[in-house]
Design goal:
alpha/beta, 8 helices, Rossmann fold, single chain, 2 domains, five-stranded parallel β-sheet, 249 residues
Length: 249
């Protein structure tokens, strides 16, 4: 069995203890090689020890987790962020497609995050930079979205997304330049993220960017024609909402 090392940086001692206990109870392949209670202490620890995965609190008494990362010359490990229940932070994590754990940490969520770690690449610096940008600018409209496909992470402009189409637990993104990206997340997750960005779910399988609607055809059950000549069906339940929405465009 392959063994992994972990470091925990959190200013609450009980939080660190809980993670250590959960790792000992629910896993056999993770060893905690160090812990710290703040930014300065954590930076010193990471200069002398390099873990496979770092559990990192976002807000600590002497600064943020990103203040700590800025002190490091490189980030050769995977990070699982820890955060309190803050709506702005959680939405930023989702935009950046980054793993995070909410306090108090649920053991099942911890195991899910570790399974993702085992199956993913270690270094994802671009996502960390993107998340930091989102957290610093959470009052500004989100302009970009991180899409985690099978072989890479793509940072895309939200308004370049034409539509999204679901297939079981996968979502295919279609862009205005003809590109496509398949993401292993459900359409519902992206509906929640993009509903305030001009996107509307017109059908169980279709989420569209309303700026690309060209016309609404009432015949054949009703469908929307988008700017790329794609015809998107409109569900019976959504037709009155779509009609009202089009009147206000």
């Amino acid at each position: 069995m392959k063994k992994y090392t972990a470091i925990i940086i959190d200013d609450i001692e009980q939080a660190r203890t809980t993670i250590k206990q959960d790792l000992a109870t629910y896993t056999e392949d993770f060893d905690v090689i160090g812990e710290a209670g703040g930014v300065i202490e954590g930076a010193k620890l990471l200069k002398n020890a390099t873990p496979d995965v770092l559990f990192l609190d976002i807000q600590m008494q002497d600064g943020s987790g990103f203040d700590l990362l800025d002190l490091l010359p490189e980030i050769p490990f995977k990070i699982i962020f820890i955060t309190a229940s803050d709506a702005h932070a959680i939405k930023a994590f989702r935009y950046a497609a980054i793993d995070y754990l909410l306090k108090p940490i649920d053991p099942d969520e911890l195991q899910n995050a570790l399974n993702k770690f085992r199956n993913s690449g270690i270094n994802e610096n671009e996502k960390y930079r993107f998340l930091n940008e989102r957290l610093k600018n959470f009052n500004k409209p989100n302009e970009r979205l991180a899409l985690h496909s099978q072989d890479k992470i793509q940072i895309v402009e939200i308004q370049s997304i034409l539509r999204c189409e679901s297939s079981v637990n996968y979502t295919t993104f279609f862009f205005n330049n003809g590109d496509q990206v398949v993401v292993t997340k459900t359409l519902k997750e992206f509906e929640d993220l993009l509903s305030d960005q001009g996107f509307f779910r017109v059908h169980q399988s279709h989420l569209i960017n309303t700026k690309y609607i060209r016309e609404y055809v009432k015949t054949d059950g009703g469908h929307l024609m988008l700017s790329d000549d794609t015809m998107i069906p409109v569900s019976v339940r959504k037709r009155p909402i779509v009609m009202k929405m089009l009147e206000n465009i």
